[in-house]
Write a structure and sequence with these properties.
The protein has one domain. A hairpin with a 4-residue loop joins strand 1 and strand 2. Helices cover 77% and strands 1% of the residues. The chain has twelve helices and two strands, in the order H-E-E-H-H-H-H-H-H-H-H-H-H-H. By secondary structure, the protein is mainly α. The chain has a two-stranded antiparallel ribbon with strand order 1-2. The protein is elongated and about 75 Å long. It is a multi-pass membrane protein. This is Gustatory receptor. Belongs to the insect chemoreceptor superfamily. Gustatory receptor (GR) family. Pfam families: 7tm_7 (PF08395).
């Protein structure tokens, strides 16, 4: 059964993410990327996306619906579409035309860490902690929500489900969810390796070869730090866009039903659909931030354990190893704009609340167009 302790679990779903070109077409055995195939498929996906955007702007049903929106609703709707489109196109481009060598570095880093920690071939006995079980469960939950959302909007707009799918950002949201799923699988893998590393530090306290073993663990710590740097290079812009999109969704999901309520055309199913979407959006974002924050704390714990070993044994060599390891402590960042820690959650909610108040004030001053 698949476990986060062994990176080979990723091969199980890598081909699934290949469908969306979130990951490049990768040969794990030869550590090579089929770059020509990636570029060809990326060109097809980008062309398909551009055709969809043109068709979306020419869709009469959507145009009529948007005309009824208040200015704030139009703004959040267009901003949401733009952000999702940029996020998805960026992911395709970075998996095909850019960062090919960076993808190789990411896989090599995981292989090197697993080799040093000797985690290859590990089996997860708990079904709840099994990667494949969790992956399938999340996909099913999300697909149930998407189906319900399409049903609600098709009923509200009095159009077919297929028309609702074509004239909405549902496909983009599904793509964003797959990006999130892939990022979370990598984050949990990195965190798991820091946990294993700290467990090994605790275990060598009574070892006669403590110094030698600590040196080896410090090397693993260095590779993990480099892995985080690689992760930032590959996904920094995606994290920035996901953060912005999460805040925008909070404003949009609350602002839309409030505007409809003012108009006297309140629909309980639409309100419920928005509420569920808001809950999913915030839950996914908070979960991602909490995993990143806990991973960073695990990295800091390693340095703390090294200092404790140095104090208890009073060996100068331990101090040098600790300083060496401390140099490779890395943080997850959104392209260097900000570090991703727990306080970002309150910043997003606070900013969203501020913009929501501004949006409500705009709504009160502007009547709906008939």
């Amino acid at each position: 059964m698949s476990t986060f302790s062994d990176i080979t679990f990723m091969r199980t779903v890598w081909k699934f993410f290949n469908i969306f070109l979130i990951t490049p077409f990768y040969n794990f055995n030869e550590n090579t990327i089929h770059s020509k195939l990636c570029k060809l498929y990326a060109t097809f996906l980008i062309a398909l996306k551009l055709v969809w955007i043109v068709a979306l702007f020419k869709n009469e049903n959507l145009s009529e619906m948007v005309k009824q929106f208040l200015f704030t609703q139009k703004f959040t709707f267009v901003a949401g579409l733009a952000t999702l489109s940029v996020l998805n196109l960026l992911s395709v481009i970075k998996s095909s035309f850019l960062d090919i060598n960076t993808w190789k570095m990411l896989v090599k880093s995981f292989d090197a860490i697993d080799s040093k920690l000797q985690t290859g071939g590990k089996v997860e006995t708990s079904i709840c902690k099994n990667f494949c079980f969790g992956f399938i469960t999340k996909q099913l939950i999300f697909m149930i929500f998407v189906t319900y959302q399409l049903y609600c909007w098709s009923s509200f707009l009095k159009i077919s489900v297929l028309q609702s799918l074509w004239a909405s950002p549902t496909c983009d949201l599904m793509y964003e969810f797959q990006i999130f799923t892939f990022l979370m699988s990598l984050l949990q893998s990195i965190k798991r390796r820091y946990v294993l590393l700290n467990e090994k530090v605790e275990a060598i306290k009574t070892s006669p070869k403590m110094r030698h073993e600590l040196q080896k663990l410090a090397q693993v710590y260095r590779i993990l730090g480099e892995t985080i740097e690689t992760w930032n290079k590959l996904f920094g812009y995606q994290i920035l866009l996901i953060t912005f999109q999460s805040g925008l969704n909070v404003v949009s999901c609350i602002n839309f039903p409030l505007g409809v309520l003012d108009r006297g055309n309140f629909d309980i199913e639409i309100a419920l659909c928005n509420g569920i979407f808001l809950l999913l959006t915030l839950s996914c974002f908070i979960w991602m931030v909490m995993v990143i924050d806990s991973t960073t704390r695990e990295a800091e714990t390693f340095i703390t354990l090294c200092y404790k070993l140095q104090e208890n044994n009073e060996i100068d060599a331990f101090g040098k190893i600790t300083i060496y390891a401390q140099h490779f402590t890395r943080n997850f960042t959104a392209v260097g704009f900000f570090r991703i820690r727990k306080n970002i959650i309150f910043s997003i909610i606070g900013n969203a609340a501020t913009y929501l108040i501004i949006a409500i004030q705009f709504n009160e001053r502007q009547p709906y167009h008939s």
